[in-house]
Write a structure and sequence with these properties.
The chain has 455 residues and is α/β, with parallel strands linked by helices. The protein has helices spanning 38-41, 46-56, 72-75, 98-104, 123-139, 154-166, 181-189, 201-211, 226-231, 233-241, 258-272, 292-302, 333-342, 352-363, 371-385, 407-415, 435-452, and strands spanning 4-8, 32-36, 94-96, 108-113, 146-150, 170-175, 193-197, 217-219, 249-253, 281-287, 346-350, 394-399.
Length: 455
């Protein structure tokens, strides 16, 4: 009943099967996008779609309990239920950051905690669709022997886990000494072939593109638009959690820029099918040391016009605490530029100190943020301080990964190992073992906190 196909984002007259091993337009070599049969989807009324999605939400009927596969008709109608590879992705907490928001003067701040998923990052959302599609391809007779990706950590973890669940061999290429120990151990534990390359992410990307010229090795990076179909459900899920109301702002960390364009696509599809009546404003948040899109945005702003693809110039990404977005030549830049134009979007950046302090401030209110989320939080703080985001606006920050994957970063912050003294650094207090002495010392510490108002 429902269908979808690949089309060229540049408008070339091509229509390709989602079961084809193809990543770029055969005519212009531009990126592809998944186009759905909108007329068929319109045969169901908006209220009926809302009811269906709400009935499936986190239930047990296979495969619809997944936050992604509960919206299967909008995502991957080409995959048979028997070939779905799901680890119950999506359905993540939309956390009301009341205390943190109050420190910024915001009344309606929410954190979409996409890291509370099977492998600890939002990458699961796209990887379930991609690996399920590969399983469907294999069932249809495609001779695929492995799936491969370049990664800064989280993509490799997601691909390895879903590949292992599907029984499909996985190859991941990581930049040597540039991912956390927790990120590295995930693909190793799941049995992937892990290559540690003496280069950065952009160098790994060049290698994996060469590797996947072999049609039996399928490319799993975000230039593969099947990934976008899973990641776009973040937007649909957000409005569902708000009882189908649209927030005013959505802030997204940006590295390879696939997530920005994916979230935009989710909102656009929901509007096109009548589930929402307006769009939020999008903010792409980049680390200052890996900020090619921010630089392009400034070039356009200086000339008083919207950002265009001609404004973009790749950079050599510098070392940043936000290692997953340490990317100087993002593959999805054209999609992201188009998305920001459609959403009256902004691009902001955060320094290393700003992102680390934003993480620590938010952590003090009950969160446990990764450094990439810290980039978005720091950008949020800047936009609030500038008056761009107003006190009464409903704001959502996309948290992309779980803080437990970045404990080295957090430890270094609190121990003073990041090259600056953290304003919110907190270290264990050495005490003896005699009960009265310990109790007295603890009371003194509590008294000191009460005097300063610290929590």
């Amino acid at each position: 009943m429902y269908g979808a196909h690949f089309a060229c984002i540049a408008g070339c007259d091509v229509r390709l099967s989602l079961l084809d091993v193809v990543y770029r337009c055969p005519r212009c070599h531009g990126l592809l996008e998944v186009v759905h049969d909108t007329e068929a989807l319109r045969n169901r009324a908006p209220a009926a779609w809302m009811k269906l999605f709400d009935e499936r939400w986190l239930r047990t009927g296979w495969p619809y309990g997944s936050g992604v596969w509960g919206k299967k008709e909008w995502v991957a109608p080409h995959v048979d239920d028997a070939n779905v590879v799901s680890l119950l992705e999506g359905g993540t907490n939309l956390f009301w950051a009341e205390r943190y928001g109050a420190t910024l003067g915001l009344e309606d701040l929410w954190i979409k905690q996409c890291g509370t998923s099977h492998t600890g990052s939002f990458k699961d959302l796209g990887m379930t669709v991609l690996v399920s599609s590969v399983k469907q391809m294999i069932a249809a007779g495609r001779p695929i022997r492995a799936v491969a990706c370049a990664s800064t950590g989280d993509t490799s973890a997601a691909l390895a886990a879903y590949g292992a669940a599907a029984g499909i061999p996985v190859v991941v290429l990581l930049p040597e000494a540039k991912v956390s120990a927790a990120q590295l151990v995930q693909p190793l534990a799941n049995g992937a072939i892990v290559g540690s390359l003496a280069t950065d992410f952009d160098g790994c990307m060049r290698v994996v593109q060469r590797l996947t010229e072999d049609p039996t090795i399928y490319l799993a990076n975000s230039m593969n638009s099947l990934r976008v179909e899973g990641q776009k459900t973040i937007a649909i899920e957000l409005v569902q959690q708000f009882d189908w109301a649209v927030p005013d702002w959505v802030l997204v960390p940006g590295g390879n820029l696939g997530n920005v364009s994916a979230i935009a696509k989710g909102f656009l599809q929901a509007r096109e099918l009548g589930l929402i009546g307006r769009l939020p404003r999008l903010v792409c948040c980049q680390a200052e040391r890996a900020n090619p899109l921010y630089r392009a945005f400034l070039r356009a702003q200086a000339q008083g016009r919207p950002m265009a693809r001609e404004d973009f110039e790749p950079v050599v990404a510098g070392t940043t605490l936000a290692s997953a977005i340490q990317i100087g030549d993002p593959v999805s830049r054209d999609k992201a530029i188009a998305a920001l134009a459609a959403f009256d979007g902004l691009v902001e950046q955060a320094s290393e100190v700003e992102l680390a302090e934003a993480v620590a401030r938010a952590d003090r209110t009950g969160m446990f943020n990764c450094p990439h989320t810290g980039v978005a939080l720091a950008c949020l703080e800047k936009l609030v301080a500038a008056g761009t985001i107003a006190r009464h606006d409903r704001v959502v920050v996309i948290s992309t990964a779980h803080g437990l994957k970045f404990t080295e970063f957090k430890t270094r912050y609190h121990e003073g190992g990041l090259g600056f003294v953290g304003a919110h650094a907190n270290v264990p207090v050495r005490m003896g073992a005699e009960p009265e002495a310990v109790v007295s010392q603890l009371h003194a510490l509590l008294d000191a906190r009460e005097k300063t108002g610290a929590r």
